[in-house]
UniProtKB/TrEMBL annotation:
Residues 85-98 have a biased composition (Polar residues). Residues 107-131, 153-162 have a biased composition (Basic and acidic residues). Residues 1-34 form the signal peptide. Residues 46-65 have a biased composition (Low complexity). SUPFAM superfamilies: Porins (SSF56935). Pfam families: BBP2_2. This is Outer membrane beta-barrel protein. Keywords: Signal.
């Protein structure tokens, strides 16, 4: 009887222990034990985890990623886990060489990220997939050329007269960029040749422009630029220095070169630059065939500037800048007997801003004065405005704004020069994937101080469309209106044209 009792008690205790063991096993395997969320979102969330920047298996290009879910791992003490001391998350810093990636376990609960990050408000804000690259590979350079052939018409109204011409315009453009691991070289060029549909060549405006920029990455904090350029253009009939009654105005050859060094000293940013320029004028031709030399206008200029900025934040850098320059004329005195070589001084202040792809640029204001060698020529001084900005309110829409103030020398006897203010604006909008609309505008104010002629204003407005027929061919259409008033001039010009652009 005693033995039976002992055996029954033993069985009862075994059943009780087995029940407790089953209850503990069910409690450990219950999903409720895995509900503790990690401060870092999983790798497949919208924000990258620590391992996403260290583990090669987390590269999106490979299509696989290490799982960071550690809820199914055995519990360890805080002192034994080395990740606790370094402030990292367990299971996040292990690479594929240390242990194999975890297999997908459908029994584990799906962990939602605490912060999904910024999401687009509308589908148009989502980034676009990059298209096929274009261009011609030339060793370590990439050339992107294009040629446009258009047929245009121009109507000019001036002082009660109306002149119309039809012409062919050929424009060649190209960009050459380097593909180096360090430093970079960018060369841009553009040339336009006009040919009237008739025997007369009056009104033809050939243009050429080429610029090169070599960037040298001297160190992490020091960047240098070496630049050079050439430009050819013909003076407009309503330019203040244009020759009255000329059938062909003077052509201007402009050569530029410069060097600059920018260095960051912590939050202080310093820039030193020097620029050289050379202007050479061709002869002008009067309506009666007389040739007029313009050699007395040939000149060379040298300018230097220093800029000091302070980084309030990566997006805002206010600055102060000082500059000085000297202009040397080839002939000491021009055809009217005036010595027009000059010395200039300028100071300005402004701010650089970079708010990402949406808005970036700079704007500044200051004062500049030009003193002439000839005492009969009064100094020209004025408040200056300068700046540029690029604004993208939405994907496919870009707005470019610009301000510039320059001092121009006059050729009129007794007149030293004038101040020229110019504002430009350009809007491009992608109406469709293969259709782009353009709007352009500019305004130029010529302020003549010291009792000179009345001020002049030039307005230009234009619109255009570009339809990409295919990857290599575009159809373009443009219309432009130009008006110049003041200073005894009142010209109105309307231009329109349609053409084809072949690009590579």
């Amino acid at each position: 009887m005693k033995i039976t009792t002992t055996t029954g008690g033993t069985r009862q205790r075994r059943r009780t222990a087995l029940g407790l063991l089953l209850a503990c096993s069910a409690l450990v395997s219950s999903p409720a034990a895995a509900q503790t969320r990690n401060v870092f979102p999983p790798q497949n969330g919208s924000l990258p985890s620590v391992a996403s920047t260290t583990s090669p298996a987390s590269n999106p290009a490979s299509g696989t990623a290490l799982r960071g879910d550690t809820s199914a791992q055995p519990a360890t003490s805080a002192a034994a886990d080395p990740n606790v001391a370094t402030g990292t998350t367990p299971g996040r810093n292990r690479t594929a060489t240390q242990e194999p990636p975890y297999e997908d376990d459908l029994n584990q609960p799906h962990e939602e990220p605490l912060d999904r990050g910024a999401e687009p408000v509308e589908t148009q804000e989502q980034p676009r997939e990059p298209g096929d690259p274009t261009g011609i590979r030339m060793g370590s350079f990439l050339l992107r050329p294009s040629i446009n052939q258009s047929i245009d018409t121009e109507t000019r109204r001036s002082s009660g007269t109306k002149v119309r011409r039809d012409y062919l315009s050929t424009a060649i453009r190209g960009t050459l960029t380097s593909d180096w691991s360090r430093h970079s070289l960018t060369v841009t060029g553009e040339g336009t040749l006009e040919r009237n549909l008739g025997s007369s060549s009056q009104g033809e405006q050939p243009e050429a422009n080429i610029n090169a920029d070599l960037r040298l990455d001297l160190s992490n904090d020091t960047v240098a630029h070496v630049t050079g350029g050439y430009r050819f253009s013909r003076e407009d009939d309503y330019d203040p220095n244009a020759l009255g009654g000329a059938s062909t105005q003077s052509g201007v050859h402009e050569f530029t070169g410069g060097a600059s060094v920018q260095r960051d000293f912590g939050k202080i940013r310093g820039t030193a630059a020097i620029d050289l320029s050379r202007a050479s004028y061709t002869d002008a031709k009067l309506s009666d065939g007389t040739i007029v030399s313009m050699k007395d206008r040939n000149r060379t200029g040298i300018d230097g500037r220093l800029r000091l900025g302070y980084e309030l934040s990566p997006a805002l850098v206010p600055y102060v800048e000082v500059a000085t320059g000297h202009t040397f004329y080839d002939l000491r005195r021009d055809n009217s007997g005036y010595a027009r070589s000059s010395q200039s001084y300028a100071a300005r202040t402004g701010i650089e801003f970079d708010l990402g792809e949406k808005l970036r640029g700079e704007i500044g204001t200051g004062y500049e004065v030009v003193d002439y060698e000839d005492e009969r020529l009064k100094s020209v001084g004025a408040v200056t405005f300068s700046g540029s900005a690029t604004w993208s309110p939405q994907r496919g829409t870009n707005v470019d704004l610009g301000l510039r103030t320059t001092m121009q020398d006059s050729t009129t006897p007794g007149q030293s020069g004038w101040v020229e203010y110019q504002a430009t604006a350009a809007l491009t909008h992608e109406m469709r994937d293969n259709l782009i609309a353009r709007l352009t505008g500019s305004s130029t104010l010529r302020d003549f101080p010291n009792g000179g002629p009345s001020d002049e204003t030039v307005w230009i407005g234009g619109a255009g469309l570009t339809w990409a027929i295919n990857r290599y061919l575009d159809l373009t259409g443009d219309v432009e209106y130009e008006q110049a008033g003041g200073g005894g001039t009142n010209d109105k010009i309307v231009r329109a044209g349609v053409g084809l652009t072949l690009k590579r």
